[in-house]
Every structure is written in structure tokens, then in C-alpha cells.
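Troubleshooting log. The previous structure file for this entry was overwritten by mistake, so regenerating from the original sequence record. Sequence copied from the archived sheet and checked twice against the printout by T.R.
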Amino acid sequence: GSEGETWCSGLDDLHDKCCKHYAQGARFAKWRTALRIDVEKGCPTDYAIDEAAHGLSRYARICQEAGLVPIVEPEILIDGVHDIETTARIQERVVS
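Regenerated output below.
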């Protein structure tokens, strides 16, 4: 990845948490991972996109194993100096 890129983290002990919340009546859970656009640095990099997808898929599987319906959201941050066409191109790349 590039300097300053982030992706999904915090999945340790998620299964136990999901089971606890299911027992308390929850039936769905939502997780977002944010990807930042920086055209000059080439962000988001393919590595960041792959890591985000992998983390979101792990999250979804853990939720399903605990009986919860997972809602996943790869969030493309709109901060920065890029135009809307760049945002649309990156969004399409991330969700495809």
C-alpha cells in the first residue's frame, strides 16, 4: 500500500461479540472500511482495495456464522481535490 492508506481491522474476537449481540436480539451488523482517494499518490492502491475486500469478506463470514446478516460497506471517502468522475471510477473499481 501507499503511505497513510488504511483498511479493515479489528476482527479479533468478533465472533464472540456477534454471538453476544445475537443473544441480545440483534439480527444484523454493519461494518465499513474507508478508502481514501489521492490521485497523486495512486490511492487507493490495488493492495488497499484487496485488503479491504478481504477484511469485509472475513467480517461477513463471521457474522453469518453467528447468525447475523452482515451489511458491508466499502466507503470511498470524498475528501480531496479529485473530481466526481474520479470518485465514480474508483467506486466502480472497488465494488467490481
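Residues 13 and 62 are 10 Å apart (CA to CA). Archived copy saved in two places this time.
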